[in-house]
Amino acid sequence: MQGMSERQYAAHVGLSRGAIQKAKDTGRLVQHADGSIDVLASDARRAAMTDPAKQRGSKAVAAPATPKLKPVPDTALSAVGETLRDEGLPAPVSGGGTTFLQARTANEVLKAQERKLKLAQLKGELIDRNRAVGVVFRLAREERDAWVTWPARAAALMASELGVMIADHGSLEPAMMQKVLEAHVRAQLESLAEVRIDLR
Fold first, then answer.
1. Phi and psi dihedrals of 100, rounded to 5?
2. What are the extents of the domains in the chain?
3. Residues 28-53 pLDDT 10s
4. How far is CA 42 from CA 16, 17, 48, 158, 171, in A?
5. Contacts for 95-100: CB closer than 8 Å, 24+ residues apart
6. pTM surpassing 0.70?
């Protein structure tokens, strides 16, 4: 036999025997008159007819492609570091860059947090922020209105009770009691109005 058998040539180029048979059928191999494979001529023909990126084995000469990567924004890198720190995991050293493992870990942490929030919302443990603000505002307004009208209702009763207690000095006028109560209630409500609720 002048050249190599299919099995020998398959071992020579690092391919399966089936791949060598297919190459023979498509004319990518050169054969001697006895049907054996001409190694040098076949190697040259395969190199000319095959995309280097698709070659395998010892004869593959494909250079690894270098993908063009977009630069990662600083805000994304700082978000990765913040997420890792929140979970007590090692964050990137300042100016040292983020490793793929750190970025992937941060991504998994964020996905877990998102699933946890969705689950809590489905269970009714979370409410809409705008709705919560509206409810608090309505309750505060109802509370304020109740206090504004309270002096008028309570003044006569309080004047009567205090009039009994300080009978030596004469009875207190309900109108005067109401005026004093209203002044103090309004002052208190003004101080409460300065309180701001932070729902962040």
1. -60, -40
2. 6-59, 74-122, 129-193
3. 899 988 989 999 999 988 888 765 55
4. 16, 15, 10, 114, 124
5. 98/72
6. no
